[in-house]
Specification:
- The structure is a single chain.
- β2 and β3 form a beta hairpin.
- α4 runs parallel beside α5, α11 runs parallel beside α12 and α17 crosses α18.
- The strands form 3 sheets. A 7-stranded mixed beta sheet has the order 6-5-4-7-8-11-10, sandwiched between helices. A 7-stranded mixed beta sheet has the order 14-13-12-15-16-18-17, sandwiched between helices. Strands 1-2-3-9 form a 4-stranded antiparallel beta sheet, with no helix packed on it.
- Among the domains are: 213 residues, Vaccinia Virus protein VP39 (Rossmann fold, 3-Layer(aba) Sandwich), CATH 3.40.50; 190 residues, Vaccinia Virus protein VP39 (Rossmann fold), CATH 3.40.50.150.
- The chain is an alpha/beta fold.
Length: 668
């Protein structure tokens, strides 16, 4: 990083207290170039007390050289040097990934490398990058897959699942300026997980040699944190779960790191912050819009003129910002409230020897009698019921000295109605009702109205003081511009309340209006472009619809044809059923015939067997006939022989044959 010409730096701010805990006590102060660094004695946060102006820092980071020029505090090659963080981010994404689409905000998104990983998971991606150079590259690389803007104020109101602040918080002088706007748009809620990395000012090298520690390099780094200061900051923002671990172990060590002192960087994972609910119930400076500031702060500025050397009760002090304003001139200020968490914030944030905070839940009944010179009660009375309002006024009468005064305010119900329903306002009062309540206990009551109007100031130099008040047009103040009512009450006669004007020197009207009109014009152009795109989409959609109607008509025709075919198929199916029934009948008949044939076959088999028996007997008879034939043949041979031989032989032969024939069975 090229060193700024620090001898020519004119700081627009001088920081007199710790940006984390508001302590003004410091130890171990040291200088780097022309920058003075204090270390808070209470939380160990180190901070540059004479940082460059915001305008100087903006031009400083807009340069490409800071991202790719190898400057101290910058980058030699942004893409190359941030590759190492991609694995860490991927592991974090893997741990929290779920079936639903998550939303992520990357503060100081650089070239958009981390958002690209989220876009690849189909997450809703948002980024804030104040550098014009880096933002242009990120927008080009993401190709519309992420909304990347210059400041948090350009983001849409949205609660994010995950917020990344990687090596970012050390670049701002006041972390509240970075974090409070996120709460204003509802970005951080109890479900939100915050991932934060920053150099570890509690490392051994940072402690032993702070001047030469590589990460002590203003004006790039302006605030330095260790475990203690980070815990302090995040607990102040009401994170319920905080995990801090070391990253980038000191490479000079010869053994494994055993404590956070052995690491040059810190990684924080925090969740469960309910600070948005805390700030919605009470006013915390810098967390709300200018409208809220214009409502609340001027009342205490008005009361400040009554505060010198007074003992003051600030009733319903909330976070204590007004009590702190009064304590600058008062002898003593006691801020009381019913909410211990608000008082804890007040004690941590506002530290003055003349300032004390106490809890009170009995509407002031237990406070000492005739003790206070001045009681202030701003925008509190409408938060209780009508009966309790009367009890509170009774208590104010009791605690005030005989010549003491009450300065009390309440909002105009017509104006609060513009903000929508407020569940914390239990009994709002009109001007007449407010006056009647006060006059019921105080003899003297003066009421003036509080307005918020544009103004023109003619002043000498930068004093900002004006001694003449005129109206720009011949018009009168109206009830419609009245934010609320401010009343001065006493038991002794008091003069008329003076009219006062408070100018916001940090809000130049012309640039603000021009910027507002520019943003409004851009919004109108975008709205017009969106409307034209919507018209085109609707036209395209209408064309698609017409084609879909045609397709639907054809599909209906096809469906009717298919239904007709189904009817025909049903008829064929019925015919098939009838044929099947006929075939079943024929099959049954065939089965009957087959049974008959089986019976006939069995009978034929029996007949065949009998025929076989007869054939066998016939064979036997044939065999016998053959035997007889053979014997007849023998007789024939004998007869022939007898014809050839003498008679005696014939006689003997005849005898023998007769004897044989006589012994043979008779043949029929």
């Amino acid at each position: 990083m090229p060193k700024m010409q620090t001898d020519k730096v004119i700081s627009s701010q001088s920081i007199s207290q710790c940006p984390v805990c508001n302590s003004k006590d410091s130890v171990n102060d040291f200088c780097i170039d022309q920058f003075i660094i204090h270390q808070c004695s209470e939380c160990d946060c180190k901070y540059v007390i004479n940082p460059p102006s915001k305008k100087e820092l903006e031009s400083y980071y807009n340069r490409e050289q800071w991202f790719n020029g190898g400057e101290p505090g910058g980058y030699r090659d942004y893409d190359e040097q941030t590759v190492g963080s991609l694995k860490m981010i991927k592991d974090i994404f893997d741990d929290i990934d779920s079936d639903r689409h998550l939303s992520i905000l990357d503060l100081g998104c650089g070239y958009g490398s981390h958002l690209q990983l989220a876009a690849d998971r189909d997450w809703q991606c948002f980024g804030v990058e104040p550098s014009d150079h880096a933002r242009a590259i990120a927008q080009l690389r993401l190709e519309g897959k992420a909304m990347i803007v210059k400041s948090i104020n350009e983001l849409i109101p949205h609660c994010f699942d995950l917020i990344l602040m990687l090596d970012v918080i050390e670049h701002v002088s006041n972390p509240e300026e970075l974090l409070y706007p996120l709460y204003n748009i509802g970005a951080i809620q109890e479900k939100t997980k915050l991932i934060l990395t920053t150099p570890n000012s509690g490392s051994r090298l940072a402690i032993s040699d702070p001047v030469n520690w590589p990460y002590h390099h203003p004006p790039s780094h302006l605030t330095y944190y260790n475990e203690k200061s980070l815990n302090k900051l995040l607990k102040k923002l009401r994170f319920s779960k905080i995990i801090i671990k070391g990253i980038y172990a000191n490479q000079a060590m010869n053994e494994d790191p055993s404590s956070l002192e052995d690491f040059e960087g810190l990684e924080v994972q925090a969740s469960g912050s309910n600070f948005i609910r805390f700030m919605q119930e009470r006013y915390v400076p810098s967390t709300c819009s200018e409208i809220a500031e214009y409502e609340h702060m001027p009342r205490y500025q008005y009361a400040l003129s009554l505060a010198p050397n007074k003992t003051i009760l600030d009733f319903g002090c909330g976070t204590g910002y007004g009590s702190s304003i009064l304590a600058a001139r008062a002898r003593a200020v006691v801020g009381v409230d019913i909410d211990e968490s608000a008082l804890e914030w007040a004690r941590e944030t506002h530290r003055k020897p003349t300032l004390n905070f106490r809890i009170n839940s009995d509407f002031g009944a237990s406070l000492p009698s005739q003790y206070f010179d001045l009681v202030t009660c701003f925008e509190m009375i409408e938060h209780v019921t009508a009966d309790h309002q009367q009890l509170i006024i009774d208590s104010f009468v009791k605690v005030l000295k005989p010549d003491g005064v009450l300065l009390i305010s309440t909002p105009n119900p017509d104006i609060t109605a513009l903000y929508g329903d407020n569940p914390y306002h239990l009994c709002e009062l009109t001007r007449d009702e407010f006056e009647a309540l006060l006059r019921s206990k105080f003899k003297f009551v003066n009421i003036i109205d509080q307005h918020a109007l544009a103004s023109i100031l003619f002043a000498s130099g930068n004093s900002g003081q004006a001694w003449q008040l005129d109206t720009l047009r011949n018009t009168k103040l109206t009830e419609s511009s009245t934010l609320g009512y401010l009343a001065l009450c006493s038991q002794q006669e008091i003069g008329a309340m003076k009219s006062s004007v408070y100018v916001d020197n940090d809000a130049p009207y012309i640039p603000l209006i021009l910027d507002l009109r520019k943003n409004l014009l851009e919004a109108k152009v975008k709205a017009y472009e969106f409307e034209q795109t919507l018209i085109q989409l609707r036209s395209t959609e209408q064309g698609h619809f017409s084609r879909e109607q045609e397709v639907l008509s054809k599909e209906q025709k096809i469906l009717r044809r298919e239904q007709e075919l189904v009817g025909k198929e049903q008829e064929l199916l019925n015919m098939d059923q009838r044929l099947l029934s006929k075939e079943q009948d024929l099959l049954n008949m065939d089965q009957g015939l087959l049974s008959k044939e089986q019976e006939l076959l069995s009978k034929e088999q029996e007949l065949l067997s009998k025929e076989q028996e007869l054939l066998s007997k016939e064979q036997e008879l044939l065999n016998r006939d053959q035997g007889l034939l053979s014997k007849e043949q023998g007789l024939l041979y004998r007869e022939q022989a007898l014809q050839r031989h003498p008679v005696s032989r014939i006689s003997n032969a005849v005898k023998r044959n007769i004897a044989w024939f006589s012994s043979s069975p008779k043949q029929t």
